[in-house]
Specification:
This protein is mainly β. It has no helices and 26 strands.
């Protein structure tokens, strides 16, 4: 013998509500990305929409079809109470489920690049240093990128950095700083690298002979862009300047240090040196004639 009875039973809906931030940290003035990982399953009734309240007076309401990820930028730092509410539309009712979490919005560093080099010339070493500021906390990481396609040494770490641009042109140097709370900022420095002159220093003769010899010194330097503005000559510590590529110097017997410094109209300079240029004593010819016997 058998019998059968049936009764309608309500099974509590199964759900899980959660959310988290995808960034390393929530940072003041920076976009924070949040994802809702909630799910709901009751008689094949899916989530309908997600309501976000960021705890600073700003809220979003999104249909699930618009995505489960949102972004928000906080304009004030400190602790915030973040609330997510999911809504499910069943056959008989609307179900709302809330989840709350506290998050802390950290101060962001303000990245800034400094340099002592007002004029940047190719083949010179450029010194960069960090001028970033952070109101609360400590900057723990500095990453430099010189964006120099002609260099194999294009990055550096630390509060200061040096770089040598081989080729003139426009370059963008970047500095990324990261605080101990995980907040970061990027500074950009636009560098115009000017061409340095290339020297060609020589004399009109390889050495001199005699007292008070006139020696002509040349530096037929050239520069790939701009013009050469003037030449500075150092002859054993005696300084001369000219606007042409040669100079005549009277030299006595001795050993000479000759240096030519060429300066372009962009303020770039280069130098060349001749060490140990010699002025020798001139021999004096003489003879004695004896009467023939």
């Amino acid at each position: 013998c058998t019998d059968e009875i049936s009764e309608e039973v309500f099974v509590k809906p199964e759900y899980e509500i959660d959310f988290h931030i995808l960034n390393q940290a929530a940072c003041l003035g920076k976009e924070s990305i949040f994802i809702c990982t909630s799910h709901y399953n009751y008689n094949n009734h899916p989530l309908d929409s997600i309501f976000w309240n960021f705890g600073d007076g700003v809220s979003y309401s999104l249909l699930l079809s618009e995505g489960d990820t949102v972004s928000h930028t906080y304009e004030n730092y400190g602790e915030k109470r973040l609330t997510v509410r999911i809504k499910v539309q069943t056959d008989n009712d609307i179900i709302n489920i809330n989840q709350e979490k506290n998050i802390y919005v950290n101060l962001s560093p303000q990245a800034q690049i400094g340099t002592l080099d007002n004029t940047i010339c190719n083949r010179d070493t450029i010194n960069y240093f960090d001028q970033s500021q952070l109101g609360l906390g400590e900057i723990i990481e500095h990453t430099w990128n010189f964006n120099d396609p002609y260099s194999d040494d294009n990055t550096a770490m630390g509060i200061s950095a040096i770089h040598n641009y081989i080729v003139e042109g426009e370059y963008i140097t970047t500095l990324i700083v990261v605080s101990d709370s995980g907040c970061s900022d990027t500074a950009v420095y636009n560098s115009t690298v000017f061409a340095k002159p290339i020297n060609h220093l020589y004399t009109n003769q390889p050495y001199g002979c005699g007292d008070t010899v006139e020696i002509k010194i040349y530096d037929t330097a050239w520069v790939s862009s701009g013009e050469i503005e003037y030449w500075q000559w150092n002859i054993n510590g005696e300084i001369h300047e000219s606007e042409v590529d040669s100079i005549i110097v009277k030299m006595d017997v001795g050993d000479y240090f000759i240096e030519s410094t060429v300066v372009s109209d962009m303020g770039c300079s280069s130098a060349d040196i001749i060490y140990g240029y010699q002025i020798y004593s001139r021999p004096y010819a003489d003879f004695i004639a004896y009467p023939k016997r």
